[in-house]
Automatic annotation (TrEMBL):
It comes from Archaeoglobus veneficus (strain DSM 11195 / SNP6). The chain holds residues 1 to 451 of 588 of the full protein. Keywords: GTP-binding, Initiation factor, Nucleotide-binding, Protein biosynthesis. GO terms for molecular function: GTP binding; GTPase activity; translation initiation factor activity. Function in general translation initiation by promoting the binding of the formylmethionine-tRNA to ribosomes. Seems to function along with eIF-2. This is Probable translation initiation factor IF-2. GTP binds at residues 13-20, 74-78, 128-131. Belongs to the TRAFAC class translation factor GTPase superfamily. Classic translation factor GTPase family. IF-2 subfamily. The lineage of its organism: Archaea, Methanobacteriati, Methanobacteriota, Archaeoglobi, Archaeoglobales. It comes from the Archaea. The keyword Protein biosynthesis applies. One of its GO terms (cellular component) is cytoplasm. Residues 4-218 form the Tr-type G domain. The gene is infB.
Length: 451
């Protein structure tokens, strides 16, 4: 059997529902057993090796293991999810949707669910903050089942009611919930794990289900097979003292070596450069040493590293890169990136709304969502709204389509005046779900008014 790489996990959810606390809790996990090995700190990510996960889950472990561990991307949130691209979709292989069980679904939860549905990313719902349920008796780091056994019936009932509410909310978005071992299609059915990111209750089950999910679902989809050629996604571009402009990246396929030539999808064109250095964080016990980083000669997916290379000025966070060996490779990469953009963006002469978004990821997500609610699209592309967009929207015969949807982009000077003149409506929002909701509502009102 082929060696599988570490799955990349992203945490999504509404603000304050506990994304950061959960990642911190996982990062601080210490297990006494020496053989388990510790957590590996990456640049922009944290890896929990499978032996450590086994230790954390020891009372409940029932999985046959094929993956080396789980790599959690340190930046939580749906923005990170839609902006970090890899070939044909989102960078993360799977996700945790975190919901404060006492509050239930909120706008960003709804947005996150829409995004997960669009990208067909399998996920687990973490019903967080169970320790806040009145009467709940917490126990540090216990499996949820152990914690559950010590609650009184009244408290159990309260949690059950909250979980039923969550199931109802998921159902509104086309998801059903079931017991993990009965789930066949993880892009339609989800498991819900009650947890507390503060006490750690339920985290063993959460990790175990993530491992099971990766192995059952991602393995089948060949998503975890390493092909060989180094491929990755840029997390962040930043100036580092003494190093110049560097890129924090997640390598999701292959092995990258110092000296390799890489092509990066830049803002206007592909950037070609040579890897001068690959840096990893220095282990904590060596922190006395001047630099935060240590140099390595090569790195194998999945991993988070910092790349030192010339010509990184034009690189955008979220772009993908690939190791290239010849002019032919560069040409192929350039064509593929262009094709992907063309495949995602839309330009027609048909009736339909105009859509402008900030990134390719959000464009892809919104196009899919609009299709789902049967709103036709005339034009969809990345960029600010300009006067041309107004002209195109105004060319629609049906007033319902004389609309511009602006997601997380600016209206350039003169656009608003032009829109008023031509009777074009502009909806400008920075939450996908809110944008869709407003447009849908407006269209329905207009239709009613016509009858
Ligand atoms: P984020 O915005 O989703 O990253 O949310 P944070 O992780 O920053 O959490 C928001 C607040 O909720 C913080 O004050 C946390 O301490 C608190 N919090 C997060 N998880 C839990 C939990 O499981 N139980 C309790 N009682 N508080 C929590």
């Amino acid at each position: 059997m082929k060696q599988l790489r570490t799955p990349i996990v992203s945490v999504l959810g509404h603000v304050d529902h506990g994304k950061t606390t959960l990642l911190d809790k996982i990062r601080r996990t210490r297990v006494t057993a020496k053989e388990a090995g510790g957590i590996t700190q990456h640049i922009g990510a944290t890896e929990i090796p499978i032996d450590l996960i086994k230790q954390i889950c020891k009372d409940i472990w029932n999985v046959k293991v094929t993956i080396p561990g789980l790599l959690f991307i340190d930046t939580p949130g749906h923005k990170a999810f839609t902006n970090l691209r890899r070939r044909g979709g989102a960078l993360a292989d799977l996700a945790i949707l975190i919901v404060d069980v006492n509050e239930g679904f909120k706008p960003q939860t709804e947005e996150a669910v829409s995004i997960l549905r669009t990208f067909k990313t399998p996920f687990v719902v973490a019903a967080n903050k169970i320790d806040r349920i009145p009467g709940w008796q917490s126990s540090e780091y216990a499996p949820f089942l152990k914690s559950w056994a010590q609650q009184d019936d009244f408290t159990k009932q309260k949690l059950e009611n909250k979980i039923y509410e969550l199931i109802g909310d998921l159902y509104r978005f086309g998801f059903s919930a079931d017991r993990f071992d009965r789930i066949k299609d993880f892009t339609r059915t989800v498991a819900i794990v009650p947890i507390s990111a503060i006490t750690g209750e339920g985290i063993p089950e959460l990790l175990m289900i993530l491992v099971g999910l990766a192995q059952k679902y991602l393995e089948e989809n060949l998503r975890l097979q390493v092909e060989g050629k180094a491929k990755g996604t840029i997390l962040e571009v930043k100036e580092e003292k003494g190093l110049g402009i560097t890129c924090d990246v997640i390598l999701y396929d292959g092995t990258l070596k110092v000296g390799d030539t890489i092509a990066i999808a830049g803002k206007d064109d592909v950037i070609v450069t040579h890897v001068k250095g690959i840096l990893k964080p220095r282990p904590a016990k060596e922190m006395r040493v001047e630099s935060k980083f240590q140099s390595v000669k090569s790195v194998t997916a999945a991993a988070g590293v910092k790349l030192v290379a010339p010509n990184l000025e034009g690189v955008l966070a979220g772009s993908e890169f690939e190791a290239v060996e010849s002019e032919e490779d560069i040409k192929n990469f350039r064509e593929r990136v262009k094709k992907e953009y063309e495949e995602i963006s839309i330009q027609t002469d048909e009736e339909g709304v105009v859509l402008k978004t900030d990134t390719l990821g959000s464009l892809e997500a919104l196009i899919n969502e609009l299709k789902e609610i049967e709103i036709p699209i005339k034009k969809a592309e990345v960029g600010d709204v300009d006067k041309r967009d107004v002209v195109e929207a105004s060319a629609n015969r049906d007033e319902l389509n004389r609309v511009i949807l602006a997601f997380n982009v600016k209206l350039l000077p003169g656009v608003e005046e032009e829109a008023a003149k031509y009777g074009v409506r502009i909806f400008k929002e920075d939450i996908i779900y809110t944008l869709l909701d407003k447009v849908k509502q407006w269209r329905e009102e207009e239709k009613l008014a016509r009858e």
